[in-house]
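Fold tokens
===========
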Amino acid sequence: MYRFYIDETELPVAPGALNLKIRGANKTLTLINDGEINLLKIPGLTEINFDFLLPMSEGYSFCGEYRRPEYYLAKLERLMTGRVPFRFIVSRISPNGRRLFDTNMLVSLEDYEVSEKAETGPDITVSVKLKQYRPYATKLLTVEETADGGYAVSVDQPRETPDRPNGSRHNVTNGECLWGIAKKFMGDGAKYKDLYYANKVLMDTANDRTGNPWYTVYPGQELIIP
């Protein structure tokens, strides 16, 4: 079972295919008398492409709550014009309920195309192109005159961002709660909803069976820390 989330919003129908392209940034150089060498560099940003369906009726919408296509189209418009990165999550669950690997990445919305075809009736198909986003910050240079008439330059390092695009993981132990885990690993207990959405499928599957509140966690669960 697959579940796709764009900025905490689950798509109504999981796409039939997902394409992730990891661009290499290596360079080939030619040295005198030594021929070609390969200069290894940090990989480029991952590109993500997929198509998804927006059904006009809830007859074959498989997420928990049905919303009409205009809700998702407005969401995409806000992401495009808002110029802020957001979370893209793909949760993969085996038929026996065991969590497989996840895709959890900070991304930007690069392009999307809306199409309607006679063969699909009133339903809408959206083609989306996302690109991985890496947080960055500028450095501040401070120049001070020294006693001997020279100058000293210092560099203020930017603060490390708490957002880790690939996500770290934490195994829940006895007595832990979602608020406490968010406070410990994300620096603020009020971010428990971000923690929930990063692990929505796992937590919902467990709590649907027990009837416990959506924010309940259990010992042994492996949570992604966004």
